[in-house]
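Tokens help. One example:
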Amino acid sequence: MRYVLAILITIITSTVLGQTNCSTAGPYIDNGFVFYNPSQITIQRCYTFMSPSDSINFSFELATTPPGTCLDQPLYQLYNQNCGTIDTANSDGLFVNLTPNTNYVLCYSVTCSTGQVAVLFTSEEIVLPIELLYFTAQSTSNGIDILWASGSELNCAGFKLERSTDVSNWVNIGYIEGAGNSQQVVRYLFEDKKPTPGVNYYRLIQYDLDGDFEILQTIAIMWNKETQTSPFRYYNFLGQKIK
């Protein structure tokens, strides 16, 4: 009987979710909470957000009054900014293959079989493909050694290195395969044997297994064949000096 009831609740909630008005979405607030007074049996809301990464995991935790029974997790649905359906309802809140810096609309719905929703808490987990620990370089008589390390990797295909002398025109100088999936520190080394005398700019680009990529960091280092000094200048992915 409990099994049939759970299926019935899911069907009703999915139907209601499909009717949610995406166009009324308001801005998403991470670690926010909403009070419902009076408490409600069914909750439906939509939020707009800009994706900072290619994967985001949303979570909406419920507090009911009196203590009752709701779905373990609300049902979530993803739309583009024009309210076109991207992903049908799912119960884990995880959406992947998003385009970073792109606007989306998230809608959710939950129905309680007993009790009513009084408070709802929001949170999100940005699933980054890589945790970059450092990206640095050192000058040698033979060129420039470029070093970086990851603390964890998720579906990481590899890294492309590019060099520039003006932060506008970039040349691909090499590619190193990533660890794929790892929860341990992985260290990488690439030797640039043909740097340009003077300032060399390097940027590290990480590629996912699905082809998505992200510019992780840009650094600058002076190279002189006769003098192996390594004064650094740090730049963000737009080439703007930050240190």
Summary: The chain has one helix and 17 strands. Residues 1-19 have pLDDT under 50 and may be disordered.
